[in-house]
């Protein structure tokens, strides 16, 4: 299993909008991607810090949806909500409990 984590600083007053976009647009689009296993969005309403965690069957599946531009299409939905840029990281899931 592979996890992609995207961290971003969202404008505090726009957190609710970001949550709605994630729930009603990003998650349905993710479900259509090969190898998708799950998605989580974490947010701190005081600081605007947001973290998206998506789980994929393999690193290849996660990279494939970057090549087909799915990932970039999702990021664009948040650009107007951000205080600054974002950070994308990927990790092998070493332990699942």
Describe the structure.
With 97 residues, the chain is α+β, with helices and mostly antiparallel strands. It has three helices and four strands; from the N terminus they run βαββααβ. A hairpin with a 5-residue loop joins β2 (36-43) and β3. The longest helix has 17 residues, at 15-31. The radius of gyration is 13 Å and the shape is globular. The two termini are 13 Å apart. The mean pLDDT is 96.
Strand order in space, largest sheet: 2-3-1-4
Number of helices: 3
Distance between the termini: 13 Å
Main beta sheet strand tally, sense and closure: 4 strands, antiparallel
| Strand segment tally | 4
Query: What oligomeric state is this?
Result: single chain
The shape is globular
Following the backbone from N to C, one meets helices and strands in this order, namely EHEEHHE
Cα gyration radius (Å): 13 Å
User: How much of the polypeptide forms β-strand, as a percent range?
Assistant: 35-45%
Structural class: alpha+beta
Averaged pLDDT, please?
96
Secondary structure: helix percent: 25-40%
Which regions are unreliable across 5 or more consecutive residues at pLDDT < 50?
none
SSE map:
Blueprint: E1 2-10, H1 15-31, E2 36-43, E3 49-56, H2 59-67, H3 70-76, E4 82-92
Antiparallel strand pairs: 1-3, 1-4, 2-3
């Amino acid at each position: 299993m592979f996890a992609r984590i995207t961290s971003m600083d969202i404008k505090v007053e726009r957190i609710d909008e970001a949550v709605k976009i994630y729930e009603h647009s990003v998650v349905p689009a993710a479900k259509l991607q090969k190898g998708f296993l799950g998605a989580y969005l974490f947010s701190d309403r005081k600081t605007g810090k947001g973290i998206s965690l998506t789980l994929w069957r393999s690193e290849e599946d996660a990279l494939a949806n970057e090549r087909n531009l799915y990932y970039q299409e999702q990021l664009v939905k948040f650009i107007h909500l951000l205080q600054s840029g974002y950070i994308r990281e990927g990790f092998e899931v070493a332990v699942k409990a």
